[in-house]
Amino acid sequence: MARTVFCQRLQKEAEGLDFQLYPGELGLRIYENISKEAWAEWQKKQTMLINEKRLNLMDPEARALIEKEMVAFLFEGKDVQIDGYVPPEK
């Protein structure tokens, strides 16, 4: 049976992640408070961010930026600002 969490991003009960996908305390916080759906949304945003800013994930500054954006997106309800990206109209 799938585990459910109260997702802080979506503000509702939703299917939780199968295992901790990010290291350390932050990873545990994500595992306990973020749903699969919200994590999938973040993964898309993260890919766009990496491509847009041409980030090298071997660079500690790039990883710090990604982590800061991830926390803002998942826990503070902020959207990722990507220069030059225009979301498709609904």
Automatic annotation (TrEMBL):
<protein>
    <recommendedName>
        <fullName>Probable Fe(2+)-trafficking protein</fullName>
    </recommendedName>
</protein>
<dbReference type="GO" id="GO:0005829">
    <property type="term" value="C:cytosol"/>
</dbReference>
<dbReference type="GO" id="GO:0034599">
    <property type="term" value="P:cellular response to oxidative stress"/>
</dbReference>
<dbReference type="GO" id="GO:0005506">
    <property type="term" value="F:iron ion binding"/>
</dbReference>
<comment type="function">
    <text>Could be a mediator in iron transactions between iron acquisition and iron-requiring processes, such as synthesis and/or repair of Fe-S clusters in biosynthetic enzymes. Necessary to maintain high levels of aconitase under oxidative stress.</text>
</comment>
<dbReference type="Pfam" id="PF04362">
    <property type="entry name" value="Iron_traffic"/>
</dbReference>
<keyword id="KW-0408">Iron</keyword>
<dbReference type="InterPro" id="IPR036766">
    <property type="entry name" value="Fe_traffick_prot_YggX_sf"/>
</dbReference>
<dbReference type="InterPro" id="IPR007457">
    <property type="entry name" value="Fe_traffick_prot_YggX"/>
</dbReference>
<comment type="similarity">
    <text>Belongs to the Fe(2+)-trafficking protein family.</text>
</comment>
